[in-house]
Amino acid sequence: MNITITKNNLIIMDNAFSILLNKTFFAVDNRLNYESYKNLLLKCEICEQAVFFKKASDFNKPGIKRIAHFSHYKDIGNIPCSERTKSNTNTQETDSEGKKQSLENYQIKIQQIIYDGIVYYQKISILQLHQRINEGEILVNLYEIDIYSWLSQFRNKREYIKKLALSLYHNKSSEIEGIVFSNIVNYLCFPVSADILKKVLYYVFLFNKEIFINNACDEVFSKTIKLISYINLGSEYQQAQKTLTVFNDDNFTEEVLSQDTDLETEKVEPKMVTIPSLFGSYKTEVLETTTLDYSLCRIKESKNGKIFYQRIPRKPYETISISWYEDKDKEGESLTLRHNTSIVATFYLTKDRTIKWNPLSVFFVNQTIIAELPVSPKEYILSENLYDFFIQWVNSSLFESWVNRNASLSIYPVHFVKLLFLFKAYINERSRLTKSIGDGLTVEVDVIPVFVDSIYNESLIKLAGKSKSMKKRYLMSNSPIKKLKISHL
Fold first, then answer.
1. Whether this model's pTM surpasses 0.70
2. What are the strands, taking DSSP E only, across 20-150?
3. Distance in angstroms (rounded) separating the CA atoms of residues 424 and 452
4. I want to staple 70 with a disulfide (CB 3.0 to 4.6 A). Which of 51, 116, 125, 385 is the partner?
5. Measured over all CA atoms, what is the biggest interatomic distance in the chain, rounded to whole angstroms?
6. DSSP state letter for 386
């Protein structure tokens, strides 16, 4: 550790460690600025707490001279540190808050990285994440779980958890990324991050109540680490690197990545399929999403009393879509339903052939949607809410023709088509069994797997038709479709 002595013989901190880049930076580095504390996630190498940056004073001006150094925040708890002196805190209002180097922004950055990892891994929206955290908090209170005791467990076993994070990080091909991930998990265990960790534990508790109730420490640790282990560290690393700029008037150059660093995200080329046509063959990208762009309309009445639909002028097109994901190592397959860019529901088929249906509350909000479909002659869907809109769409002739065409040309992956048909069978049977109980209220009856399976089989038989290639692709070697072993949750 390098130590610099000021005129007043006060020890100052001239280096800090970057959590994101896993390297030490010195205060005299002219690439650092007042945003570096957050962009690089700088911390003290001794106590491992967040620090901010103090620039050197202008030596052309009279008054106290100060060289560049780092300083601790005042409000990080009573954690002793040999680098923490009065000189570290007596100018915090001008160097921290004054330069907008707030501890709050530092913590928001940590939370954002962790939340992004959960959203990606769980294939949910940020809104869903907050809803599940709130649900978990309610259950923790209901089961009278001492969440603060669990926070203490993470703090007391921080070194063990840091090593566990290194072993559980999902990307085994990148040693550096694993180390950076363990740095983040390590920081999460400190009291300053208690609020972030508490929310993550609420989420874990929602789906794993028994491990908290049974006080299964290792399982709680591993479940929590695994939940956040899909952080996009390649992207975070590159963003942090791009902030390391050397300013020279209005011009600057970016630091070149070192040769021994391999954190760049791999560019995945899209899968392609060859399509025969009258004018020769052509290649097109394999699609794992089916999309409907529609125009919003309103009901109008003509002079003779005839009802018709009219497009709302200057209203942009809206979109609903269903995207397919396959997780070969964990959950299985899933469909994500979106309205414009927002996820509104997720449909899972797990590896043990269990159906999981997770619609958001916004899916059922009473909202009349009148949509003009992109077909000729004009076709419309009139629905009460998004859920009803999706049901009508997947049962429309337009949807069927799209799926059949893209399936026969192999533009859609086989498993995507199968899951689309299973989803269609499931929600149709679910809707059929929804019963009215008066006063506009309804109750849904659990679907029977054999009925869902039967509808699913009929759809695939209709898709395959007399085509030998389609039968081979969807009907398991020309024999009747193998029954799915599914159960209803």
1. no
2. 23-26, 42-43, 51-54, 69-72
3. 9
4. 51
5. 94
6. H
DSSP three-state, residue 146:
coil
User: Do residues 118 and 36 share a domain?
Assistant: no
Number of domains in the chain: 3
Q: Is the peptide bond preceding residue 359 cis, with omega within 30 degrees of 0? A: no
Q: Tell me the residue range of the domain where 50 lies.
A: 3-101
Q: Which residues contact 212 (CB under 8 A, 6 or more apart)?
A: 140, 143, 145, 150, 205, 220
Residue 443, domain member (yes or no): yes
307-311 and 379-383 beta bridge pairing: unpaired
Average of per-residue pLDDT across 347-354: 81
Same domain, 482 and 369: yes
Please give the Cα distance from 147 to 202 (Å, whole number): 9
197 pLDDT band, cuts 50/70/90, is very high
H helices of 370-489, where?
386-394, 397-408, 414-432, 449-464, 468-474
Identify the CA nearest to 321 among candidates 335, 300, 331: 335
Where is the domain boundary, 101, 128, 158?
Answer: 101
Question: Is 266 within a domain?
Answer: no
Q: Are residues 370 and 309 in the same domain?
A: yes
Q: Map tokens 């009929």 to a residue.
A: 458
Tell me if 257 is assigned to some domain.
Answer: no
Q: Which residue has the tokens 């997720």?
A: 346
Nearest in space to 87 (alpha carbons), one of 188, 11, 183: 11
Give residue-wise pLDDT tens across range 151-178.
Answer: 999 999 999 999 999 888 887 777 788 8
Q: Is the pLDDT of residue 19 over 80?
A: yes
Task: Return d(Cα 231, Cα 452) in angstroms, integer.
Answer: 37
**Nearest by Cα to 324 from 406, 215, 412:** 412
d(CA 116, CA 124): 10
Both 87 and 200 in one domain: the answer is: no
What's the token pair of residue 27? Answer: 């205060």
User: Which of 15, 326, 19, 331 minimizes the C-alpha distance to 165?
Assistant: 19
Which residue in 280, 279, 271, 313 sits closest to 296, CA to CA?
313
